[in-house]
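If your schedule permits, I should be very grateful for your opinion on a structural question. What I wish to show you is a protein chain and, alongside it, a tokenised description of its three-dimensional fold. Would you kindly read the sequence against the tokens and tell me how you understand this chain to fold? Here, with my thanks, is the record as I have it:

===
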Amino acid sequence: MAGRALYKIVACCLVRQLGNEAKLVYDVKMENTYSSNSPQTVKIPSSNRNPLKPQKVTVPIESKRELKNPFVIPGLQKVKIESQLNPNYNFANFVEGDSNRLARSAGMAVANKPGGTSFNPLLIYGGVGLGKTHLTHAIGVEIKDKYPDKTVLYISSEKFTQQFIDSVKSNTRNDFIHFYQMIDVLLIDDVQFLSGKAGTQDVFFHIFNHLHQNGKQVILTSDKAPVDMQDIEQRLLSRFKWGLSAELQAPDYETRISILQNKLYRDGVEMPEEIVEYIAKNIKCNVRELEGVLISMIAQASFNRREFTIELAKQIVDKFVKSTKKELSIDYIQKVVSKYFDMDVATLQSKTRKRHIVQARQLAMYFSKRMTKSSLASIGSQIGKRDHATVLHACKTVDNLTETDKQFKKYVEDLTKKLSL
């Protein structure tokens, strides 16, 4: 078997070098053990064997095929990868203000010299609707504009996780890793969702190391700073801290005015200044909500042929704010509950079985389940590293005590008011 395999390799090389007419001739020396005569030589032409079919061997240097998922075609040295970037999210329409100046400036520096600054990785963090995704896309769009040959990929952490799970199921884990190691600029949104996913964190750790060591740029977004992230491996957190962590804060009044004016200018719409100011004064925390109110105003004026008035603005702002339920963080809920019971968060998360501490912990789990979109496992992990069954038991206990214990019912009512402010 080994000889035949060697024959195929040699014959294949001859065909490629000399053409299909090439022949392979063996000189075989045989010792005659029964006589003292010299060794005999027999020439065996290759025609004595089955003819070898010519093989077309191609080694592609570059492929124009676009890959939207991390499945690598073996042998490709370079592939064209769809960046998944939204060109509408760019620096031109990302309004700068005191609340985002550091993050925007760092983003511009990275876009001018990806992988060549000390901002690697660049971690952009902040609350919901403050522009993390917009700024991340803007950096990617700018890099693609200045460096067309660089491979840029934007992906959410949830999609990254799902792709990794699929690769494990299909036994293509190495292809998955190899794909991401080819990226020049990797942008991962909402990295906090890697929390509790040990396998995904492990593979991302190795991908991150490869990219960083080879001068590639990594850009991450999160709803909190690395120091506040829960259930993320320390070795990964330490790498998040290697570069720059830049916070996006709620925009101040002047920045909110500029955001609204920029949006109106891009849409070619004129609106009285007093209405713009009214919207800016009443929508304070979220850029997404700010633009949402403006879009609703324009829609009402266009479809219902209504003029821009303060009355119309008031109606839309009131409805929009009421329909936008504030999502609380588990960290915030723990702080409010701890303060209410006059204890610190560490005590609330501790292993103690003292009744008043256990009840405080159960209430924190109960309100986290009610007021956030987090899973039971995530809630338990962040409140003293408990499992999902403990959280489920806590929620049932709170429901039962609320019906049977007047004092405990007051706890629930008081905390509901505090958390709803």
